[in-house]
Structures are given as structure tokens and as C-alpha cells.
């Protein structure tokens, strides 16, 4: 099939993948490796591969998961650092795409704005925007690998009297290349992973960096280089070492999460105690590093080799806890009267959520609103045909789940081909009375965007697992012909959706 000029083509693609980040390249690799006859393209709204790792360019940007699990199982991460900087992750994704000849199948600068499913033709008609205008593509299967946050803008809360501040105000999602913070006083508003990453990097050149947080966050120290991984690499070679390290990290992450859920008081004491050891008397740990919630109610922040704590010990970084009362020309004042001097303000205040990259979905002309749908295994939406989506773990590496979903989509399409099915869609669950949020995490960005996300229930297969072993069962070893899935060989009027949402 010739897909070079997609505008006005009458040909039908087998699969269209949306997004060329970690998830999209993973999906493309599995599709190409296991279904080489499938004709597909990857739509990428930006002009580069990498997704998150191309978008975020703020100082010190790095993974907050270990690379043996954030990287792909099929392409071992061989870099010596287990916690890697963003540019190296981006190169890893780019090299994966290039080596597998996936890059040539990516349509850069092509943004999916609308997808229309037709029960008559059993296809998706996609409306795409690019520099050349609008065009259309038709595909039998749509694979959304867009994640769940807005690439166009991050979240910035209302900051009282921010107009009084005379210095630069910067959101990390749009970091200016020419910003000079040498010998400047920098205030970073926020205490999540971005802030914990930014502060030690800024502190290297700034006069002082102060993290202003409304609520403390759990911060844990982790070695940037995995000593066991390096030993395994020398002893057994790269691929066995990758496999051993990957499983060691999966098990360790699951252990920490389960301990946090089952013994929260113990884990709280352990985490806060480690901070006491890391900073000593340089800061009031009980005030600034003792959150009012349990570990893993929100995602833990990592400090590779304790770089964040080292900046505090060196007197280059500080923490101020409390709500912001007002801004002055060169300072921030908190409700308790604390004043933080600042020449530059960084609003590390989180993400804004967006489902399907903002594309509108329709089934036979009826709008599909994800928040009114129940997710099937976290990979499909109830009542929506021939569509899969990838959303990774919140308590482990994102890619672990994305790979399982990509493998499952291959199994699903193989099953459909063997049985000559044209359509698959999850049935609507009998009861959604116990429906709850798709992401079971009490983070601010999740609470703000929960109204956009699909629902889950406590009943399988409508439950979203945050457990790799349960997902191995659900995606790799469970049967495809699940009673919760409806398979159709030919279009039929009875398959039309009865209600609009």
C-alpha cells in the first residue's frame, strides 16, 4: 500500500498508531515484528520522536523510574546509569525507531483531531491536521499511544498578585533555551518529581534555589547507577544482565508499593528517617518532608544519589512550606509571613490532562466521551470498536504496561484474523454502580483531570491493575475470546450504539 500521500487516499490501513513516544514506538515495533503484513503508519503531532522526552527540556530532566524497566524488554538499556537524563532517553527511543525502520513510517506534524467509526464499513475515518491542511486516513484499527496529559500546556494554579512579580515566570513544560540563572535567586513553586529534578540542576549555577510547597512530598534517595546490574553485565553479558536487572527492579518496586499499602506507618517512618540521615540538622525534616498522607497515596519522588539532599546540605537549596499569600517585585510571601527572595519564578505545578491527545471520537456519528465509558483491562473503552489505548503504571515504569498492551493487541488481531472477525469491542458492563477513577492516585493533576478519564470498577475485566503480575495474567496468558468482548464478522444494524453520550 502506498501511504506517502495520505490526503484523499481511498486505501485502508490495517492499523494507525497515534503518538511516537515510548508507547507509540513500542506499539510499532511489536506490530512490525509480529504482524509484518500489516500496513500501518504512526501519526505524531510534533516534529520529533520521543514524546515526553522530546517535549521536556528543563535543566536536569531525567527519568523517575529505572531504565531497565522504563526501557523496552526487546532492546536492553546498556547505559551505565540506571536513572537517565532526558536526552539519553530520547536518543534511545530514536535509535530504537531507526534500527527497526519505524522512523520512515512516522508522519511528523500530523495531529489527529477527529476519529469516526462506521459500523457499515467497519473502519475508522481519521481527520488529520498538518501544515498542508486537513487530510483523511482510513484504518481498520486505531491504537492510541498518546498518554494522558496535554502537550500544549501544563497546569498553573491561580497565584495571588503574580502580576506584581517582575522577573521571568516559567513553566518547566516550556523551558526557554536562553534563560540565564547564573547567580540568580530562583523560587520553584511545587514539590513533585519535576521540582525535585530541577532544584539540584538549578543549584549548580544559581545563587540559591528555594522550593515553595503547600504540602510536603515523600522523597527517596536511589543510586543513579545500579551496582548489581553492572556486576551482572560483567559476569553474564548484556542481555542476561538486562533480564536479571529488569526482574529485580520489578520485584523491588512491587515490594515497596505493597509494603506502603499494607504497612504505611512503618514505611512512613522509614522514608522520613532516611531524609533525616540525608540532611541532618540543615533543615526541619518534620516540617518540610513529613506529608500528611501515606506513602504511595501519591507517587514517590526519587533523588538519584541524593542530589536533592546534597544541594540542601551545601546551602544551595532550601524549602519553604505553606500557602502563597502574595508576590512582590522580587519576592514571594507565604501565609505565615515567610519571605522568599526570587529573581526567577518556576511554576513546577503539574500537568493538565488530555485523553486521546485531544482528538474527538465518534461511533456512527455519536460522540464518545471517555469519562462515561468503562475501561476494559485499562486497554479499551466499553462500546468502542477496534480501538486500543495505552496508559502505563503510576506505581512502576510506564513502559512495562505499554508493552503488555502492545503484545495483547497483537494476540487480539491474530485471533480476529484466524476467525475472520472484522470488529471487536468491549460490551458495556452490567453494573457500573461501583465505578471509580481510572487512576487510583491522589495526585493533584489526577484529581483535576479525573472528569476526563474513563472509569473502572472492582470487577474483572473492568479493573485497572497497578500490578505487573496481575497484568501478565490479564494480557499475556488470559484467553482472547473473553465473554466481555463482542466479536463480529460482518456489519449489522444491531451493532449500532443505542445511546449517545
Describe this structure in words.
This protein is an alpha/beta fold and 501 residues long. The N terminus and C terminus are likely disordered. Strand 14 and strand 15 form a beta hairpin. The radius of gyration is 24 Å and the shape is globular. The strands form 7 sheets. Strands 1, 2, 3, 4, 5, 6, 17, 18 and 21 form a 9-stranded mixed sheet that branches. The chain has a 5-stranded parallel sheet with strand order 7-16-8-9-12. A 3-stranded antiparallel sheet has the order 13-14-15, with no helix packed on it.
Strand and helix map with partners:
Blueprint lengths: L11 E7 L3 H13 L5 E5 L7 H4 L11 H4 L15 H14 L6 E3 L2 E8 L4 E8 L2 E12 L24 E2 L14 E5 L3 H11 L4 E6 L5 E4 L4 H10 L1 H25 L1 H16 L5 H4 L12 E4 L2 H7 L3 E5 L2 E4 L3 E4 L4 E3 L2 E4 L12 E4 L2 E3 L6 E2 L3 E2 L5 E3 L8 H21 L4 E4 L9 E2 L6 H6 L5 E2 L11 H10 L7 E4 L13
Parallel strand pairs: 1-2, 1-6, 2-3, 4-17, 6-21, 7-16, 8-9, 8-16, 9-12, 10-11
Antiparallel strand pairs: 4-5, 5-6, 13-14, 14-15, 17-18, 19-20, 22-25, 23-24
Helix pairs in contact: 1-11, 5-10, 6-7, 7-8, 11-13
Jot down its keywords.
13 helices, 501 residues, alpha/beta, nine-stranded mixed β-sheet, 25 strands
C-alpha end-to-end distance: 36 Å
Beta content comes to 15-25%
Shape: globular
- Rg from alpha-carbon coordinates: 24 Å
Number of strands: 25
Contiguous uncertain segments of 5+ residues: 1-6, 493-500
The helix content, as a percent range, equals 25-40%
SS field, number of helical segments: 13
Amino acid at each position: 500500500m502506498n501511504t506517502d500521500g495520505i490526503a484523499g487516499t481511498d486505501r485502508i490501513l490495517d492499523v494507525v498508531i497515534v503518538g511516537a513516544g515510548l508507547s507509540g514506538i513500542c506499539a510499532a515495533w511489536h506490530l512490525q515484528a509480529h504482524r509484518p503484513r500489516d500496513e500501518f503508519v504512526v501519526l505524531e503531532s510534533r516534529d520529533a520522536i520521543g514524546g515526553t522526552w522530546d517535549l521536556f527540556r528543563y535543566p536536569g530532566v531525567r527519568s523517575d523510574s529505572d531504565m531497565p524497566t522504563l526501557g523496552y524488554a526487546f532492546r536492553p538499556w546498556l547505559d551505565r546509569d540506571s536513572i537517565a537524563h532526558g536526552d539519553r532517553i530520547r536518543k534511545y527511543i530514536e535509535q530504537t525507531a531507526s534500527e527497526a525502520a519505524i522512523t520512515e513510517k512516522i508522519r511528523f506534524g500530523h495531529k489527529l483531531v477527529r476519529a469516526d467509526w462506521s459500523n457499515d464499513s467497519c473502519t475508522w475515518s481519521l481527520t488529520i491536521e498538518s501544515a498542508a491542511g486537513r487530510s483523511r486516513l482510513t484504518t481498520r484499527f486505531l491504537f492510541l499511544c498518546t498518554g494522558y496529559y496535554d502537550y500544549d500546556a501544563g497546569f498553573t494554579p491561580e497565584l495571588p498578585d503574580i502580576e506584581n512579580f517582575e522577573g521571568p515566570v516559567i513553566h518547566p513544560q516550556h523551558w526557554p533555551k536562553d534563560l540565564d540563572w547564573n547567580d540568580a535567586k530562583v523560587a520553584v513553586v511545587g514539590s513533585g518529581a519535576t521540582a525535585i529534578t530541577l532544584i539540584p540542576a538549578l543549584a549548580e549555577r544559581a545563587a540559591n534555589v528555594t522550593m515553595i510547597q503547600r504540602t510536603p512530598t515523600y522523597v527517596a534517595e536511589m543510586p543513579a547507577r545500579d551496582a548489581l546490574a553492572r556486576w551482572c553485565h560483567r559476569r553474564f553479558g548484556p542481555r542476561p544482565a538486562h533480564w536479571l536487572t529488569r526482574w529485580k527492579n520489578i520485584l523491588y518496586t512491587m515490594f515497596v508499593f505493597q509494603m506502603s499499602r499494607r504497612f504505611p506507618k512503618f514505611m512512613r517512618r522509614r522514608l522520613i528517617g532516611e531524609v533525616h540521615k540525608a540532611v541532618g540538622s540543615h533543615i526541619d525534616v518534620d516540617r518540610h518532608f513529613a506529608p500528611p498522607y501515606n506513602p504511595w497515596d501519591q507517587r514517590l519522588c526519587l533523588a538519584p544519589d541524593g542530589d536533592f539532599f546534597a544541594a540542601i546540605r551545601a546551602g544551595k537549596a532550601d524549602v519553604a512550606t505553606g500557602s502563597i499569600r502574595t508576590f512582590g517585585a522580587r519576592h514571594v510571601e507565604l501565609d505565615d509571613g515567610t519571605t522568599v527572595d526570587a529573581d526567577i519564578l518556576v511554576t513546577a505545578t503539574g500537568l493538565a490532562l488530555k485523553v486521546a491527545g485531544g482528538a474527538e471520537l465518534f461511533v456512527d456519528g455519536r460522540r464518545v466521551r471517555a469519562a462515561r465509558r468503562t475501561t476494559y483491562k485499562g486497554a479499551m473503552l466499553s462500546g468502542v470498536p477496534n480501538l486500543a489505548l495505552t496508559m502505563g503504571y503510576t506505581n512502576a515504569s510506564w513502559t512495562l504496561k505499554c508493552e503488555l498492551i502492545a503484545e495483547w493487541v497483537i494476540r487480539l488481531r491474530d485471533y480476529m484474523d484466524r476467525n475472520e472477525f472484522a470488529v471487536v469491542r468491549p460490551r458495556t458492563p452490567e453494573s457500573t454502580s461501583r465505578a471509580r477513577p481510572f487512576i487510583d492516585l491522589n495526585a493533584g493533576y489526577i484529581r483535576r483531570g479525573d472528569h476526563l478519564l474513563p472509569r473502572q470498577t472492582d470487577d474483572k475485566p473492568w479493573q485497572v491493575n497497578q500490578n505487573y503480575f496481575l497484568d501478565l495474567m490479564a494480557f499475556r496468558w488470559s484467553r482472547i475470546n473473553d465473554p466481555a468482548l463482542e466479536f463480529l464478522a460482518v456489519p449489522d444494524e444491531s451493532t449500532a450504539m443505542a445511546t449517545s453520550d
